Every structure is written in C-alpha cells, then in structure tokens.
Amino acid sequence: MFITLIVLFVIGYLVIALEHPLKVDKTATALLLGMLMWILYAFGAEYLVPMAESDHLAKYIAENPHEAQKSLYHQALDYILNVKIVEALGDITQTLLFLIGAMTIVELIDVHGGFSVITDRINTRKKSRLLWVVCATTFVFSAILDNMTTTIVMIMLLRKLVADQKERWIYAAMVVIAANTGGAWSPIGDVTTIMLWVKGNVTALALIKFVLLPSLVALLVPLFIVARRLKGELPVKDNSTEGNRWLSAGERNTMFILGVGGLIFVPIFKSLTHMPPFVGILFVLGILWVYTEIFYNRKLSDGRYEDMPVNRLPRLIARIDMPSILFFLGILMAVSVLQATGVLSATAAFLDEEVHNIYAINILLGTLSSIVDNVPLVAGVMGMYPVVMDAAQVTGYEAAFVVDGTFWEFLSYCAGVGGSLLIIGSAAGVIAMGIEKINFGWYLKNFSLLALAGYLAGAAVYIIEVMLLK
Question: pTM (2 decimals)?
C-alpha cells in the first residue's frame, strides 16, 4: 500500500503535467488524485497508521477508551477519520480561505481602478525594461506580503500592461521566480520562513543577512537571460476598467490604499495577535466589505450615479477562479497523505543517513519542493532535527542545527527558491498557472532550466558566504 500511494502520486502528477496533450483539466485530476489517496490511506489504515504513527495511535486509543474494544483496523480508521483528516483539512482550509480572501481583495482593487496608481506610473513600453521593473517590484513586495498575494497582485497588473497572453506568460513566469526568491529571505515572506522564524530556528536579522544575497542572485541569473531575449516595445496600453469613469482619482486611490494596506497589515496582524493569516485576511475583507457597502449606498443616493455599475463584494466573490481553488485543494490533500504516511519524513531520513552533508541535503530537499508542497516538507524536516539551543556544546555536523545554524538558513533558501523549478512547485506557481492558464509543459521547457541555474548559483553564493563570514 505504501508503494501504491507513491506510484499513484507520481502518475497523478504526470497526468497534471500532460494536461493539454491528454485534454483532461488539471483540476479534475488533482481532485481525483487527492480523494483516491485518502481512500487508499483509509483502506490501508491497519498497516499504514501503526507504521507511521504508532505513538499517536496509542495516545488516541488511550484518550478514547471505547476504541480499545475495536479491531486494529477500526482503531486506525477512526484515528484517520477523527484526527488526520481533520488536521489536514484544518491546515488546507486555512490556505484556501487566505487565498480566497486575497483574491477577492485584489479583485476589489482592480475593478475599482485602484491599480492605475501603479500602472499609470509605469511609462516604459520597452519589454526588457518592463520585465526588470516587474521583477524588482515583485521581489520587494513578496518580502513584505506573502508570495501568493504578491503573485496575484502582479499578474493582475500585467493584465493591464501586456495584452498578448503568450507574451504575458513570460512575465508571469518571471513573477513566480521573483516572488519565490523574494519570499525566501524575509521572515514573513513565505510560509516556510514564517514556520522557521516562529519556531525559533532562525532570527529575522540572520535570515536577512545570509539569505538576501543568494536569493537576489537566484533571481538575477534567469532575469538577465530572459531580459536579453525580449526585444521591441509593447503596444500602447488600455487600462480602462469597468466603472472607472464613475470614480474620481481620489476614490480609486482610496481603494488601492485600503486594499494593499490591508494586505500589508495581515503579517502585522499575525505578529500582534498570533492568529493564523487567514483570520487577518478575512478581517481585512470584512472591513473592506463594510466600506464598499457604505460607499455604494452614498453613491447611489446621488441621482447623478444611477447608471453606475455596482461592484459590491457578493458580485466580486462570484468571479473568483474556483477551479484554481479546487486544484489547490486536491494537490494539498494528496500531499497531506504523503506526510501522514511518513513518506516525506522517510525521504528526509534517507538523505540524512546516505548523504550526511547539509548543503547536499538542502539542495535535494529544495529540488523535491518543486514536486511536493514545501510546507509539509519543511515541517517534516523540522520534526526530524531538533534545534540545538546550546551552541557551545556541539561541534561539526551538529553545529549546523543551532539557532541561526547553517542548516536552517540554507533550508529557508532552498525550500523557497527550489519551488520555482516547476510551475506546480510553489503557491505562487499554482496561482499563476490558475489565473493565466500557463501550460505545465511550456514552463518546463522555457523556464525550469533557467530557474535551476539561478537556484544553484544562489546556493553557491550562500556556501561562499558561510566560508567567509561564519
């Protein structure tokens, strides 16, 4: 059963990758894959649960005395139904709710012409120069916001700047790379860096000091190459947005400030309240919802605006790309089975035993993060290696696992940047794939090697930093 799950996962990813030749929508495949893996996990409960989580199963039985009278199969099945699937859905739902909230806020800004604050100031029509501007903006924004939100914002901007879809794919692919590299060096820029920071594996200052330069190099390598390939200028843009003629410049700016300010507030909210990010994003969405209700009630009370399109939140929520949300659900459900059955932790253990080199292990883990979600991957690795609190008591290999140790810093870089190797390897990539309908094979052919070159170059820079500064 263990091997069956791995084979099924690989087949599912291949079908997703071959979406266009097979003419089977990736969302259908992802949902089928996720649900099939949970069904097989339940059927094999008697073998899989004791093998991967015997201690947790024993604790569950001890806390629920009525389970003691049941067979091992039913005990394990109840554990899956009452504990594992609830935990998996809890984690996944947080991500999906955050995504829905962020997409709705960005849609609200866009439909009210808020992005004109930025697009009106991007005057260059030269394709290569525009790419530099977009990537630099993404790199900085993703360190402040998270890379999912930044990707959504930047792709919505690109839709106003680049009319041709295939040409926009080039910019969107570089946005994915820029978002992942920008999030890797900031303690609030990526879910994995947040995990490492909150758990105390790294401090914000050390992360910025040692991971910023490698992350920048990982972006610059593919950016130089792609920018040299872009020739000519874009046609004059048409940034007209539905309903813009009914709104003043001040009202559009207000929507932009409230929306983007709300997105920036989310990590601050998390730091202040220690609540998960989805609570912050839905809190901001609630404020914006109330604001737009008051805004339209005031506008419509004026007889001059009777014909104005009313873009209240219920209308905008209906425009959210649900296939992308369901695709994300299916993929994360499938990955959660790999985590629950110990596949990810077993892979990390194998690397530790057979490789036993922190640089090689992290580079391989980063490559693996382009196939599976980096959040459970990093969580599994953090569970394997406890943080060494007393640095004076360890030397050699173990010294890499102290607070701000080489292993944790390099893990932050590799897990974040490595996700760019495949379009489905990161939340930013999944978002771009969903919004722009980017072909998996197209990204693999045109950007995977470029992302790999940047990834390895940045890794080399980090190793040199350690040799010179640590």
Answer: 0.73
